[in-house]
Recover the amino acids of this structure.
């Protein structure tokens, strides 16, 4: 059974930990919004706020974000005006190579003008040790491209997800029995707006359950959106696993970990967020059903 731990950020600037934070386990964050004075003035009875938790796992530097409050609607309605916000625990998966987790919080709202309030121990943030099984460090990791410049103000990840699917089950016109296992990656990247042509891509590695490299590739992130936020995105298969049909089997290594580095090129200069993103995958047996 996966290990779970809870970090409680309580009123009076108190923090409390329940359980050991373990690699590969689950970390739940509970936050008392009274720690942050509401950075808002209700507009027409509508309380327009949110408190976002930022969790940075070291040493890779991946940041996971999510809300720790939920809206309370008028007269028990499930939508419409939010008259208040209540606590909403945030659960995140602890990476299998993490040694520490760093947390901070942002309360933001926009009633008439934008307002921010931070809970970050005056910029030091909140640090907690991670224990458990030995670190899993797939090898060789995706290398950092020579000449690239780390600039989070130029490119960073808005959304990422790695999944393993049985393409036979997802295709109504496919075979009635069998499996066609595919590892898929979804990435949405925010990039700095530019008047010049630009390119975005990800260098990626896929590893088996023994942390051995089984696939290396580069995928292009096509441009997806105009407007105040420029976005590039990718959604597709990055590794084709085992295929089995009645009377035929084509076995391939079981993909269990996916790594990638994100890049964005503008006017012959390559930028990156500097993070070795790593996502775990279920075993083939779980994906076949």
């Amino acid at each position: 059974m996966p290990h779970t731990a809870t970090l409680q950020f309580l009123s009076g600037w108190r923090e409390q930990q329940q359980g050991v934070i373990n690699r590969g386990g689950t970390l739940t964050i509970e936050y008392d919004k009274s720690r942050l004075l509401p950075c808002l003035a209700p507009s027409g009875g509508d309380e327009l706020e949110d408190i976002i938790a930022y969790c940075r796992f070291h040493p890779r530097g991946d940041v996971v974000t999510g809300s720790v409050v939920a809206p309370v609607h008028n007269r028990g309605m499930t939508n419409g005006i939010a008259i208040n916000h209540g606590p909403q625990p945030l659960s995140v998966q602890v990476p299998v190579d993490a040694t520490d987790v760093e947390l901070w919080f942002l309360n933001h709202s926009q009633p008439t003008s934008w307002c921010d309030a931070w809970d970050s121990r005056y910029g030091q943030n909140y640090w907690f040790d991670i224990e458990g099984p030995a670190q899993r460090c797939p090898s060789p990791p995706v290398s950092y491209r020579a000449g690239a410049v780390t600039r989070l103000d130029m490119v960073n990840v808005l959304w990422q997800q790695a999944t393993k699917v049985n393409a036979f089950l997802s295709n109504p016109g496919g075979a009635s029995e069998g499996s066609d296992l595919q590892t898929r990656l979804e990435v949405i990247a925010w990039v700095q707006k530019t008047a010049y042509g630009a390119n975005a891509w990800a260098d990626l590695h896929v590893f088996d359950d023994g942390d051995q490299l089984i696939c290396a590739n580069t995928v292009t992130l096509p441009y997806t959106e105009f407007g105040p936020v420029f976005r590039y995105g990718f959604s597709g298969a990055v590794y084709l696993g085992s295929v089995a049909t009645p009377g035929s089997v084509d076995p391939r290594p079981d993909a269990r970990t996916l790594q990638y580095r994100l890049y964005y090129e503008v006017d012959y200069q390559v930028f990156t967020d500097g993070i070795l993103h790593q996502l775990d995958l279920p075993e083939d047996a779980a994906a076949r059903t």
Summary: The mean pLDDT is 86. The chain is about 5% helix and 55% strand.
